[in-house]
Amino acid sequence: MGKFGVVSDLLSDVSVAKTGRDMDTVWIPRERIRKNPRNGYEISNVQELAEDIARCGLAQPLEVTPAEDGNYLLITGERRLTALDDLIDRGIWKKDIPCFVRTMAYYDLPLSAQEKEMYAILRTNCLNRDKSDADLYFEVTEWGKIISELKQKGYKQISTDSGNISLRGRTREIAAAQVHISTGQAAKIERIQKHGHEKLQEAVRKGRIRLAAAYNVSLMTQEEQEAFLEQCAGKESIRQEELENFRKNAEKEQQNLQEELVREFCTRNSRETQKMLECCRREKDTRKKAEAVRRAVSPHGSMYSSGRDYAWRFGNSAEGISLQVENRHACMSYVRFVRILEKLYDGLSGMQKDTESGGPETVPEEEGNALAGEEKDIPAATGMTEGRGSLPELKNNQQRREWLQRYKEWGLWYRDPNIDVNYYRYIFPDGTELVAAEYPCREHYWSDGACDEVFYHLLEKKTKNHRGQIFDGKYREEITGETELVNFLRIQAGRSEK
């Protein structure tokens, strides 16, 4: 037969009725009939059928095919045979069973013996049957295998008593036409087949879950599917309500994990957190806040940082944020990140909420609010200078470096308890400010233990830029290096001598 050959008798209602009339009935003992393990149709209402057979007799013979051991393998009529078994056990049915005997050679199909047998099961069980979701799943799955095998052998079209069937197009659409369901429903079944956990597919085959609910489960990850099915392991049926409850609990757990990791990030990255909070305060709309945070932390598309037990990745707007600490991992959008910041920092007011009491953390009066932008001078500790006026006599660069390292002698300007940062400020006669931001006891993957970090910010007054324009550097965020500071101190010493 060529690639465009004609295959007769593919799922024809007319042929099913006609061949049933043409075949002779054979009476076969029950012990010589075996049920077909490949028949995936559900069996229901067996007791009602048994009572009907007891009253009126068997209306339609079974259909069997000869087996290799001399017995017979059931093709169609498993529900009738199950009802007859009940009558035999009760002593009501005492005779042999009427059957139609048909060999697989009868089916003129270019299929393997295994798929030809399955075709016979599908063809003879498709009529006069109220199909359950499990039956539809079984039929679409098996028809897909048959159609795929015909396509692999090069067949483009087949002919039936009811007309030609084209094999062009998607397999699921052709299978849907044979099962008489919509292509949308067939697509859902295909999704369950390809992405559903093996336990989910087994639940569908056994009729424990409806197709609509199974499709929604297949949208989850394999780990989530397995967790949900384990939760429903002891239940006879799995309902949509149980899936919704599972999703709500999983969403709540995910939100708690996100908040936990954002809090961990803020604790480990106080400088970046301060920058993010300052960006958020300049905007009113949440989406604008999120975009401002993205531009601040990953202006060139992506920012990645990792250590021995953590990893952060801030991608573009579409990629979002990924936070990981040890074996805990969560992804979120920038909007979600900003909303968590608002929750943790009391509406971005700079006061971190006390997670135990539910209220804001009390800030001592002597401590200013760095994140709110307040410039409140706090009385210096005993023995400290005011950090103002002329510089002490510094004869060389080494003495200037040592003076920078003694920044605590300037006096504490303010402390931010939310991000654990101490700020020290020295104001020069011309109004230029030098701020030392101290990050105490910070841990890094390149160091064995915690150590203090200090970053200097030189905010010059009436400075000229490269265009010759004069500006006030009070609001600059850049870090000033030690070499530049030493050179600045040398110039200041020269000015004081004049």
From TrEMBL:
Give GO BP annotations, semicolon-separated: chromosome segregation
Q: Does the keyword Ribonucleoprotein apply?
A: no
Give the span(s) annotated as Disordered.
351-372
Residue runs in coiled coils: 240-267
SMART domains (UniProt xref): ParB
Q: Which domain of life is it from?
A: Bacteria
Q: What is this protein called?
A: ParB-like N-terminal domain-containing protein
Look up and give the organism this protein is from: Marvinbryantia formatexigens DSM 14469
